[in-house]
From TrEMBL:
This is Lipocalin-like domain-containing protein. Keywords: Signal. Residues 1-24 form the signal peptide.
């Protein structure tokens, strides 16, 4: 049974991959409209769009690492900060070339974050009443 499932899986995967490649080379088959949309931004080095795994030094363990999920919707950046037990929506998001600033509420306190992107890594500072903390991260592969 398992051998047949493996063969079926291989056949379906092969069919899907060859169909997609044939679609890409077929000039009479138009590109789907959602791929040609100006709202879709490719994930490329030196852009904030994507998912970032980050760490923060000198903070309690539950805040020492997490994910930044950054999207661009209607020309506006949207930042979500995924902590160990919660996800926070950032506000006051601004981007100027390879620099981003935003604020996020953590335990009732406003934390201001300033980041810079270079290739597939980010670095910056987070400021709160507890002081300034260093933040570093890399683009997530998932």
């Amino acid at each position: 049974m398992m051998k047949k499932f493996g063969q079926l899986f291989f056949a379906v995967t092969f069919f899907m991959l060859t169909s997609v490649s044939l679609m890409a080379t077929n000039k009479t088959n138009p590109v789907p409209h959602y791929l040609d949309s100006p709202e879709v931004e490719a994930i490329a080095p030196n852009t904030f769009v994507g998912t970032w795994e980050y760490t923060v030094a000198d903070v309690p363990y539950e805040y020492s690492k997490g994910l930044l999920i950054i999207t661009k919707e209607n020309k506006e950046y949207v930042v979500k900060v995924k902590l160990q037990y919660d996800t926070k929506q950032a506000t006051e998001v601004s981007v100027n070339k390879n620099k981003m600033n935003f604020s996020v509420m953590v335990e009732g306190e406003k934390v201001m974050v300033a980041l810079e992107v270079k290739d597939n890594s980010i670095a910056g500072k987070a400021n709160s009443s507890q002081g300034q903390m260093s933040l570093a991260g890399k683009r997530s592969k998932s």
